[in-house]
């Protein structure tokens, strides 16, 4: 159609701009206003009944919304083949092109929809995780921040004594040489069957000994953790409190029976927790002790060496244990956009937990000694604590007068507790944007940076910069964002992004047929998830942090258990980076955990795999099918391959509207079985992975395997924009267009020009949010 028009007019320039901004190839029509009007007329006659005046869907039971990301040429081809559904021949050729032109500019494309309904920042509360993290860090602010390890060593420091009393005098005051003797070593974990012996029979005499393991527990993901001690003897575990109260206490024993003691607790990711475990064998014949855990999405296992460090962080971490209702995840990331009685109740309980902690640790938190509570110095310390605590929570300075109101004139531990609870239940804490209007520009930036990067509040360094007014310029903000990027809390939040992007929450309950796939049990699935996390961490936090490696890398992390299934001969429980020289692996696209989660109980699923690749890797929108069609293997000829079955199931014109994208991508992975192992045949027939895929402009792209999918995604502007958009949404939890009209295009352009660096993209994303109202390229103030 574009061949027949030339010249200049405003609509042509608008259409070209829409196409360029959205990442689509716009057709430079001259006389496009006539084409637009012609398409509008045809659309009104043939399409409105089913699709609505503005693509919103009509009253017809089979109506369908017309929102998407196809280009004008691609839309024209689609219309030619399928519209209207009852007589596709009514709208073909130049008519189809005119309709495509009209709907794309009027309401179909993302840019058109943004014009019809401009994006706005949503008034949102803290999510459950943001509440926990913010409260924890508000208390940690007064306890020295989070503990940061200085060592790269892993494992625990073990100290062993020949007597059962940790080198102290026995009850009768006597000690022989072997009772007093001790030695230290680094242990990979606590899994020991001493039998009738000792840790070192050359040093210790028979019968009794004691040991103490010290160090830190490294937690990478927030959630509920279960811990278990299995022993025949006496043992106790201190976690996050290495002095007062054991988390597990099985100190008193009788007989030789093997006992198990369990407990669960919530822990926040991106933190190190002080850990100490003590154990003794006195009169029992046999010595045995194990410390196990069950991490989120995991199984019972010895705590792995990579999660332990021999250095002890000296800072306890306050972690609210209150259960919160689930946050809204309809957009693929957690949002605080709903309010319920359950949520309000959880907020109150969490605030009371924090108040109780401050009450118990009053002197440590306020610096006020008991003898100072009734004098002027003590009152000043208490007021200063409340003023600073409220300033942090509200993300702006709070004066002495307001601190006094929060205390209500009660300068006591009970008064401070009330002030903490009042602060943490205030809308000024719970609704971050609510607290900003009368804050200085630097305090606004500090609060936004902390929330976007850490889901938290400013630390001492960030607050110091805000107090000095040093967060006004782009280079100042970037310096702080890059510092914060190195904090383990950012690593934890970014891991959460990958879990959302890869839809790992949907994989928690997967099981595989024990008849078809013997040995694929919960332990293997937990190892596969760990393998995926290690791979993502390696790419993200490696030297170049290259997004392209996420899609193309030829290696996996395997331990012995996984190696027995996927080959390569790795030995031991530790995971090792293992290269597949045969070129069969292509990053996350062929990671066994992804392939396993996107498959049926007993067979592959090109549809599930294709939908995931279409939406999450290629970045193309898919509509919900008008009718849910269940795949029933028993309905097909048993001699057919899975590809043949899916082709037959989706061959109708209505299905192929989406399956023309889904099927080629799903078929590209058919050489991997339902647990991600390579195969050459399906149902005794050679596997065919070759298909024709159509790009955003409707051009044919041959797809023969996962490497082709990866290369297409890397080269696709819309795919890159989809990744950038998802990452921004996860970090900031607000629409990017509400912050900056061209922020998405700016971030994608910088991302592509600067080596596809994921870490730089994180910094750029949080800066756009932190510096609202400024041009993302220059940092200059712009009109809102």
How would you characterize this protein structure?
This protein is α+β, with helices and mostly antiparallel strands. It has 4 domains: 2-116, Cytochrome Bc1 Complex, Chain D, domain 2 (Orthogonal Bundle); 128-144 and 324-490, no CATH class; 156-309, Jelly Rolls (Sandwich); 500-715, no CATH class. Helix content is 42%, strand content 12%. It contains 30 helices and 18 strands. Strands 1, 2, 4, 6, 7, 9 and 12 form a 7-stranded antiparallel beta sheet that branches. Helix 11 (376-394) crosses helix 12. The longest helix has 20 residues, at 341-360. The chain is globular, with a radius of gyration of 31 Å. The two termini are 39 Å apart.
Short description:
The chain is an alpha+beta fold and 784 residues long.
How are the SSEs placed, and which strands pair?
Layout: H1 10-22, H2 32-46, H3 48-51, H4 72-82, H5 93-108, H6 110-116, H7 128-140, E1 156-161, H8 177-180, E2 182-187, E3 191-195, E4 209-219, E5 223-231, E6 234-239, E7 248-250, E8 259-267, E9 271-281, E10 287-294, E11 301-302, E12 308-309, H9 341-360, H10 362-366, H11 376-394, H12 400-407, H13 413-424, H14 427-430, H15 441-454, H16 460-467, H17 474-485, H18 488-501, H19 522-540, H20 547-552, E13 555-558, H21 560-566, E14 576-579, H22 592-597, H23 606-617, H24 642-649, H25 653-667, E15 681-682, E16 685-686, E17 691-694, E18 700-703, H26 706-715, H27 717-732, H28 736-739, H29 743-753, H30 758-770
Antiparallel strand pairs: 1-2, 1-4, 3-10, 4-9, 4-12, 5-8, 5-10, 6-7, 6-9, 10-11, 13-14, 15-16, 17-18
Helix pairs in contact: 2-5, 4-5, 5-6, 7-9, 9-13, 11-12, 11-13, 15-16, 15-17, 15-30, 17-30, 18-27, 23-25, 27-29, 27-30, 29-30
